[in-house]
Amino acid sequence: MGQNKYTIVEHGNIVSPKGFQAGGLHCGLKKTDRNDLGLVLCDVPAVAAAVYTTNAIQAAPLKVTRDSLQNGTLRAVVVNSGNANACTGKQGEEDAYTMRSLTAAQFGLSAEDIAVASTGVIGELLKMDRVDSGIANLPGQIGGKPESAEAFNQAILTTDLVKKEACVTVTVDGNPVTIAGAAKGSGMIHPNMATMLGFMTTDAVISHDALQQLLRSATDLTFNMITVDGDTSTNDMLLAMASGLADHQVLTPEHKDWDAFAEGFSYVCRVLAKAIARDGEGAKRLIEVTVTGAECDSDAQAIAKTIIGSSLVKSAMFGADANWGRIIAAVGRAGRPVNPETVDIAIGPIAVLEQSRPLPFDEEAALAYLQGDTIHIDVDLHIASGSAVAWGCDLTYDYVRINAAYRT
Question: In terms of domains, do 303 and 216 share one?
């Protein structure tokens, strides 16, 4: 692909772009003392865009955020963890709107300036007295330093073991532009987004339509290409905010530096998506599936997602078993064109199938490879030039343990 058009910012975070602050605190929604309420604030009205879960059952905060985004700008997003505020009826909707109005009042903003996001247990009403007191204390916790970003990162986690963040700079009209992101998610993760929340910030000057288009296309190739367990959540949201404080002409797809900006934006999304897959509940290994030679890219995407979502494939990877039969079975049931005589499969450096015929391979070498923390599966269909990459994780005993006791 050639040299990257972006520069990775080590230790960059969601407040690295100009104009952004963040913070978080513990207000008592979680049973532990971990942060459970956070905020990202822009100093100026930010151009904003979002994509949401495709689940027909959608949590109350999504309705509130859609309402706030009608004019295409935001000043802040308030997020709680520990309670999804989903399937909570009219009271849950009122509570989400109350979160918005309380936040607006504390920061001297209009209610429509605020987006709302929630994650956690479904079907329980928010403890609004705790939310109220937490929001009242948020202004004192908001800042532009790395520790402020860290407090926000911790506030959005549920069963996650690690925070997820990424940051890059690109050059637009000769000036640096920063793109950053933070996300949460480790279970109820499946293509078409999942129990994930993602927040992107940038100081780019960009129109709402261009940002929405970029967010959607980047999501299709990153967040929509991960799976942990085949479940799509009620609360998924990926929100992008652009402060416009960088010094350059308005970015559109026709701008000479659009490709560089889009590549950097997609890189941040890809890092966050892979981090979610790697941190799947109970997971030991990240699995990356690359499908080439499909009739078109969408066929390759469907096949890659079917492989990465197969419980049998995931279980084999947990057991370090090079059971390629499970892989080709997933290829065949993906519902897309496949020539049953031309499929090649490799597990890491080990070719196990060529032209749909098994190859002898070193079982001990395969075992050693599969005991690593990242597994690559390559499938070449030899039909045309369609290709795609998907990410997931192995299926472990701990996944069942964690989800068997999620409410308790």
Answer: no
CATH code of the domain containing 334: 3.10.20.340
d(CA 311, CA 4): 35
Are residues 108 and 174 located together in one domain of the fold? yes
- How do beta strands 286-294 and 344-347 pair? unpaired
**How many structural domains are present in the chain?**
2
The candidate with the shortest Cα–Cα distance to 76, out of 100, 98, 53, 51, is 100
Q: Are residues 180 and 201 in the same domain?
A: yes
- Find tokens 């000043």 and name the residue: 75
Tens-digit pLDDT profile for residues 316-336: 999 999 999 999 999 999 999
What are the pLDDT digits (tens) for 228-250? 555 567 888 899 999 999 999 99
Same domain, 370 and 271: no
How far is it, in rounded angstroms, from Cα 160 to Cα 372?
A: 21
Exactly one of 65, 73, 195, 219 is catalytic; which is it? 195
User: Is 2 among the domain residues?
Assistant: no
Phi-psi region of 281 (alpha: psi -120 to 50; beta: other; left: phi over 0): beta
Among this protein's residues, is 374 annotated catalytic?
Answer: no
Residue 308 has, within 13 A of its CA and on its CB side, a CA count of 35
- Indicate the pTM of the whole model: 0.86
Is the Cβ–Cβ distance between 170 and 16 less than 8 Å? no
Q: What angle do CA 297, 301, 306 make, to 5 degrees?
A: 150
CB count within 10 Å of CB 215 equals 21
DSSP E strands, 20-134: 20-25, 37-52, 73-83, 114-121
- List the structure tokens of 279: 């941190």
**Do 150 and 44 fall within a single domain?**
yes
Quick check: 252 and 213 in contact, CB under 8 A?
no
Helices (H), 319-362: 324-332
- Residue ranges of the binding site for substrate: 158, 184, 195, 281, 403, 408
Q: H or E segment at 182?
A: strand 175-184
